[in-house]
Amino acid sequence: MKQDIIVIGAGPAGLSFARDMAETGLKITLIEKQPEIVLADPPYDGREIALTHLSYKIMNDLGMWDLIAKDDISLIKTAKVMNGHSPYALSFDHTEAGENNLGFMISNNRIRKAAYESLKGYDNIQILCEKEVASLGTDSGLGWVELKDGARLEAPLIVAADSRFSTTRRMMGISTSMLDFGRTCVVCTMSAELPHDDTAYECFHFDRTLAVLPLNNNQVSVVITLPSEESATLLSMSKEDFAKDIERRTESRFGAMALTSELFPYPLVATFAKKFHARRFAVVGDAAVGMHPVTAHGFNLGLRGAHTLAKELKNTLQTGGDIGSYTPLERYSRVHVRTCTPLYHGTNILVKLYTKDTPAAKFARRALLRLGNRIKPAKRLIMNQLTENKAA
Ligand SMILES: Cc1cc2nc3c(=O)[nH]c(=O)nc-3n(C[C@H](O)[C@H](O)[C@H](O)COP(=O)(O)OP(=O)(O)OC[C@H]3O[C@@H](n4cnc5c(N)ncnc54)[C@H](O)[C@@H]3O)c2cc1C
Question: Taking the complete model, does pTM exceed 0.85, yes or no?
Answer without folding.
Answer: yes
